[in-house]
Give the backbone structure.
Amino acid sequence: MLKILHTSDWQIGKLFGQFESDDAALLADARFQVVEGLAHLANAEQVDLVLVAGDVFDAQTVADRTIHRLFKAMSAYAGPWIMIPGNHDAGLAESVWTRARRLGAVPENVTICLRSEPLVLARPAVAILPAPMTQRNTYADLTEWFAGADTPAGLPRIGMAHGSVQGILAEGIDSTNPIAAGRAAQARLDYLALGDWHGARQVDERTWYSGTPETDRFRANASGCALLVSLDGGAAPRVEVRATGRYRWQSVVATLRVPGDVDNVIDTLNSLMAQDVVTLEIDGQIDLDGHRRLLAAIEQARGTARGVLANLGDLRLAPTQDDIDALHADGYVGEVIAELRAAQEGPGVQGDDARIARDALALLAGMLA
Amino acid sequence: MKLSRIRIAQFRQFRDAIEIDGLAPGLNLFTGPNETGKSTIVTALRAAFFERYRSNSAEDFRPWGDGSAAPSVTLDFEHGGEQYQLLKSFLGKKRCELQISGAGGPVRRLDGAEAEDHLATLLGFQHASKGASKAEHWGIPGLLWMAQGTAQDVREPLAHATGHLRTVLGSAVSDVASSHGDDIIARVESARGELLTARSGKPTGGYLAALERRDQLIASAAQVAAEIEEYRHKVDELARLQQAHEADQAQPPWLEARDQERAAARRLEDIQEIERTLGEQRVRVTQIEERAALLRTQLDGYAKETRTVDARRVALAEARQAHEAAAAGVGPWRQRLEESTRQHEAARLGAQRARLRERRLALDREHGALQVSVQAATQALASAQAEQARQQDHERRAAALRITEQDLAGLREQARLQRELELRLSAVATRLEFALEAGQSLAIDGDTVQGSGERQLAKSTALTLPGVGRLTITPGGADLTALRRQADEAGERLSSLLLGLNLASTDAAEARAREYGNTLAEAKVAAATLKGLAPQGIDALRAQLARDETRLREVEQARAQLLRQGDDAEQQAHSAIQPTTQPETSPLSAQEAESRLAAVERTLKQINTDLHKAQLTASDSQARVDAAQREHDAALALLTAPGRAEKEAACRQSFDDTLAQAASARARVESLLAQVEQARPDILKQDLERYRRSAEQLEQAFHQRRDALMRLDVELQAAGARGLEERQAEIARDLAQARRHAQELTHRAQALDHLLTLLRDKRATLTARLQAPLRQHLQRYVQLLFPQGHVDLDTDLMPGTLARAGTLGLESAAFDELSFGAREQLGVISRLAYADLLLEAGRPTLVILDDALVHSDDQRLAQMKRILFDAATRHQVLLFTCHPANWRDMGVAPRALDGLRARG
């Protein structure tokens, strides 16, 4: 029985500019930590082999220390690591891989497949058919040659590729780096380890996307995991999805209509924890108090969670009469408040004007409070 | 507030008390010269209100030199229907008492500080917490009570009164006030000031820094993106080069070129061999052709010799023919020569004869002429000799008769002198007339006279009367004697001259002179005749005659000789001409004969020349015949030389052989040339060069590419080590954050800006509304003073820009730009407006003007008087002046301060 840990899309070197710098640093750091976690997992599960199906690095020209740090992070597992380049780290004439070799950063137990040729290992006894990307993008199916490749009889044939399996996504989407559907069966593969999609997904009986082990975007489903694959003779592989990610990325979308709506959002914010990464999309209207509380809750959430993005651009600030009374805004200040309220609604109000009026109103309210 | 009584005691110059009673509720006019206490009254009023009764600063109020005085002021006034009496005294008697009695209400008494504070609240001022009261404490009264020369200054007193005025305005329109509007504005301003500059609204501080950081990062991002693009481009280039390099390494492309080069070189060598052979063949062809040419020349020589013999033969025949013709031409010319010679001889003789004849005739003519000439000359010579003798004769006579003109003139002069003296003598002399009877005579000095006559008696003259006796008459006069003597002397001189000339008298002299002249003339005639006969003199005539005679003899001799010759010639001519020619009918003239002879001579000469020419031609042709004969013989000798025919045959044989050789050699050359041309060695050379260069170029390209590869590899390694894309990600991250930050600040700045604008607008609107009443009051006065005048109020209630009708339409000027007079007028006006406002709010108003409006012109002053009069219908006005005349028309009686003092 052959036990494999299948992973991909580590995207090492990725930074998260949309967040505050300390959050971004932690999220970037998490990508190294998850590799350490994978090594420990491989160790713990005593796998025979780790397959990394492309996009190990997020970019070709990452810093030297990043390269060193990655391979160090893999050190907990001393067994064989087989890697192929993906579209982010394609095996170009000069690439992150040639640099890694030059730097001497690649340990003995790590094999990087830069050529489309069978790799036959003795221990474990297995034949790997890699489809490394040697261009940034290609419209050719790099797995085409798998079927015609002879491997020693009796050895499991395992394919590795990075790209989009045809016929799964809607027509016309991401048509680069295609992989023909049914390649595993057609090329007599025991297992086809795929990368490129950040969510884990089974394509067919012997074909899987592992997804990224650490989520790096909000719209990724089923990411933050790795696959434990067991091959036993000619039987279909047994695949176990293992959660490996630390951070939960979530979108909160809400339209505020009644005063109670904001409480729900605030509850959500209050319930956030350190491993949460959140984006807020809030529109509708809100009174002064609700606005104050919402802003306070967002600030608080920023303290707890690892990243909070808040888009309140379409939110309208509508002080109630009680609000205004509470502000004791008599005389001309009262008139100003009334004008700022009016400026946020009504036909012909430009987006910027409404925003400026809202901000001005919030500022005034803050000063009066 | 209406003052009704003022009492001042022991206060500065008022050592004694003065009291001003019965003050009118409206205008009160106080007059007096300087130093009469106008200002002291005002000071006393201020002291009564503003100074604490306990204040030590009241020392100032004490009359000079009166240490024990207790200055005091007592005021009675009415306000709001209540009567107030204030007694305030300082220093010695520190007291303050205020009695307030309402209409029918109980009397209230307030003492000390309580009384003072009550008044401060009522009038709207403060007390100094320490020391003397200053302008800043005076509030409303400080504004309305205008000290001497301060009416134009509004700003400062207004600032001290603004609080009180605002209260009045605020309470007037309490419903629009904002409890913390200005505070909010200040905070918004401050918050905005952190982001935007106050004046131009440009980003500043942190906002500016955020924008700059964002822009820097955008620039950095662009740069890194460009670098990454270049890096990627280089990576692709590297791949391309590597592929090409490997392909070349597997199969070096220059090897093929080298092979082609070698093949071309071989082909070139072959063709060069052919070219060499061709060269040799060409040389051979040249040699053969040279030999053939030599042989041909030889053959031509032989042929030429044969042709020469033929030619010579023909030439000889021709020469002979020509000679015969020439020889035939000589005979006729000889005959013609003989004939011409004969003709010539005849002509010559004829001419000779003619010449002789001519000569004889000439000699005959000369001979005749000479005979005539000799005869004439002989006659002329005889006449000339006769004439010469006559001339000589005349000349001799003339020499004998000679008398000169001078002699004659001397004679004439002396005769005239004598006559003149005689005349004078007769004039002086006694005239003696006589008339004698016929036959009677008398002797006068011996001379007997008869008849009648007269005498001049110059000396004693004796008349002898025959028969009678003698009478001696002696003329009188002294000079008669002298005259007589002079006349005698003249007569003697004349006689001596005549004697010298051997003449008897002057008449004889004259006659001789005439004769002399005639003789001279005759001699001249004879000379002239001689001249005509022998112009060159007689000797010349004689010589001419001798010459003519000699010539005559010669001519006679020549004639004789000629006659002899003529006879000989005649005989000769007859013997010569007779057989051939007819005797001449008439002898030719010598000239004709000569010209005929000349013509015959020319003909003869011509014939001679032609004959000579014919003879020359004949001998020349003979010479030619000889030469042709010789040449012919020589050529014939060559041709007939022994062995020549054999030689010629051999030569012809070898010429034919050589021609055959040349043809074959040329054919070979043609064939070789065709080979060479087909092979095109020049193109072959180019091919060789082309292949060589191609190979070199390919090899060089290979090496260059290898170098480029190495270079690119190194570059890429270096670039990769810089972690460009990681840096790009970092920059993108920082840029996103910077953008967010900048955007937040932009939003905040926009909001603050908007808010501030709104607040200010609203506040300005409100202020305008609040100031409306004050504006109305002010406007009322301004229009009285300035036609169509209008004055703004700023937020501090200060009069601002004054607009009014000027000479050029509406003019406007800020308050501070106005003239002193106008400022003073506006100052008074605005105070009256403040007073009106205060009055409406039920606050006490008292207006004091101390020597105000002294800078106003009459017209303005008149308007100001109307204004003051109007104001005085609502407010009590105390007006102090040292110019009472200016204020006579205010409708009130002035109070003279002098009088007041007297009352004290």
